Amino acid sequence: MIRGVRFxxxxxxxxxxxxxxxxxxxxxxxxxxxxxxxxxxxxxxxxLFNQKYYDGLEFERIIAHEKYYILALGLIAFPSESGEDVYxxxxxxxxxxxxxxxxxxxxxxxxxxxxxxxxKLFEKSANKHEFEDIEYFGExxxxxxxxxxx
Length: 150
Hints:
By secondary structure, the protein is of the alpha+beta class.
């Protein structure tokens, strides 16, 4: 069974979150950030995000920022504000979270979702923006037995 999709993004300053979520209605979710290491200014130590929780409209406004650099990021999407943090696949499956996006080492994107149609939308975005090494994965990927940190 498909549990996620993964791909690589280029290692450069750009609006990659906006591209990754191109096919997703981000305004319909409540967002919890984990392991946030995203810089918004190449000349100063400014962070793209300055809080842990965002409503969908604010999140959408922030990711449309012209350029930012993602070192590492964990994002959890919930249908409402009552979302709880998740740390591994078991806690994700028990939670109300709909999907979890994990970006690490600047270029690696892993997305876990409870709904296969959501994964197809992420794959569509990845193909549209010509990200590399796009593939679906199942529970044999190794990501299911470890804590999810970027």
